[in-house]
Amino acid sequence: MVEVEKSRPQILVTGAAGALAQQVIGRLREDCDLVAVDFREQVYLGDDIPSYCIDFNKRSFEDLFRRYQFDGVIHLGRIMSSQLTRMRRYNANVLGTQKLLDLSHKYGIKRMVVLSTFHVYGAVAYNPALIDEEAPLKSAGLSADLIDSVELENLANIYLWRYPDLNITILRPCNIVGPGVRNSISTLLGMERAPVLAGFSPMMQFIHIDDMADAIVLAYNKPQRGIFNVAPQDWVAYQHALKLCGCKRIPIPSIPPILPRLILRTLNLRSFPSYLMHFFKYPVVIDGRAFAREFEFSPRRPLKEIFRFYRENKKPV
Amino acid sequence: MGLASILKSRLIPAELENHINRIRKPIGSLGYDPWGYNNEVMKYGFSLTRQIYEKYFRVEATGVEKIPADGPVLIVPNHSGQLPIDGLLIAYALASRKEKPRIPRAMIERFFPTVPYLGNLLNEFGAVLGDPTNCAKMLANGEAVIVFPEGVRGSGKLYQDRYQLKRFGNGFMHLAMKYKAPIVPVGVVGCEETIPAIANIKPLARFLGIPYAPLAMPLVLPAKVHLNFGDPMVFDDLEIPEEQVTERVEQVKAAISELIDTGLSERKRLF
């Protein structure tokens, strides 16, 4: 008897120009048919993966859903808070995601993974450690620059409960770092001299980009709806992390609070924007145990290995 | 040999290093736990506190062996003396006990994390922001937690109110019941005399954003401190009305009051 070959799942991956998406694509390309899209640029990912540069808010985006019969969507295309203007970020992250969710519902997508961030919890002095997924998202009230991150989550949440068939899983990772990562914390760790707020060295969590890619693939492969923090069970103080990365620390006066805000606004550093200032002052330590349990995830790259990479790559060739 | 290692060898003798390493704290690969406790910094803190504990306050601790050797436990003392010296001394008494020492976690006022340098330092020594979620997670981790149910009402009281217990919050009892953590009451005598305050300058406290601004001498007096640890009190986790929870809190308060009286009667002189 001839065995009928099981068709390969077709997956849409957004944010294809980012290092994380490329890691995820690398892990899935063998067993899945992938289509890559990015808001920013068209990237070449090999002849087997069609790649597009599309604004999700344009009508032509729907053509992709008509052309390919997607089974799942991995939404990693979130413009980080240090990029573009607030308005453009809102259009891309919130309205763009809404469009993506609408189309996913319309075309019967059966599995969706949405990448969020631990920034949604907000950095305040009264944060307890090991924040659970049920904790309130305070960041919208703290900075207008983080509203789009919270709104993106809210939208995904609404679709999660309203359309259970979409099987949405929202991941809130801690700081993603490692080769190729261009977010603000990775830039800081890679610098020769990095700013710190004098007298403040909050606890932080870091996850290696390879581990994060593993986490996304694990999440995609198990249709378990819900919201999950993703973080290893390891912690380090910010200034200690800088030291281990071989960064010279440049202290910025931290009191009265208006002073560092003024200094940072004047300097306008991409890697240390004033609205992320509190993340370098107060800890936002999340509890990743629920995800680890549910998806049998255990990160394999220890902090020391992560920091060694930054220490040894201070001056890229 | 660098300056740091010379300093370390002076401040942290091998015996102390072994003592701390013997207490296996659940920490990550770089010596930290989620609340910012750091095993290496703790050793310096321990060494410094030993001087303060033995030489300055000449602490006499009775019954520290009553604290269980493992599992979650709430250590509940009276609070006094403007600065959290009482918490520090209780923590040292438990961390330095010969048989089965433990490094307890002290819950501190919400204002400390906003103070540069001090906030981080306290965290590295094991102090934790006094938040119910923190306390719950630590009890779930099987930690020994020092809680002051009087909060700033206790530490900020004036000298004229010394050794009078202020209102206790009920939060610690709910947590003890939920996590089946025994409560060890502690009577602290002597800390009231370390920074006797005659008034609280409220407008100054408001201006500085701190809980209270005591009018006191700008020094810590070397009062002799007595710590009396009571027998562990165990409460079941039945669903009971708040009124009965308050009754249980009153039982703990009465036990502490008794331990304070014992300490006061044992005390021969203030300094």
UniProtKB/TrEMBL annotation, chain A:
Residues 11-231 form the NAD-dependent epimerase/dehydratase domain. Gene3D superfamilies: NAD(P)-binding Rossmann-like Domain. Signal peptide: none annotated. SUPFAM superfamilies: NAD(P)-binding Rossmann-fold domains (SSF51735). It comes from the Bacteria. It holds the Pfam family Epimerase. This is SDR family oxidoreductase. The lineage of its organism: Bacteria, Pseudomonadati, Pseudomonadota, Gammaproteobacteria, Pseudomonadales.
UniProtKB/TrEMBL annotation, chain B:
Residues 73-191 form the Phospholipid/glycerol acyltransferase domain. It holds the Pfam family Acyltransferase. It comes from the Bacteria. One of its GO terms (molecular function) is acyltransferase activity. SMART domains: PlsC (SM00563). CDD domains: LPLAT_MGAT-like. Keywords: Acyltransferase, Transferase. SUPFAM superfamilies: Glycerol-3-phosphate (1)-acyltransferase. InterPro entries: Plipid/glycerol_acylTrfase (IPR002123). PANTHER family: MONOACYLGLYCEROL_DIACYLGLYCEROL O-ACYLTRANSFERASE (PTHR22753:SF14), TRANSMEMBRANE PROTEIN 68 (PTHR22753). This is Acyltransferase family protein. It comes from Marinobacter iranensis.
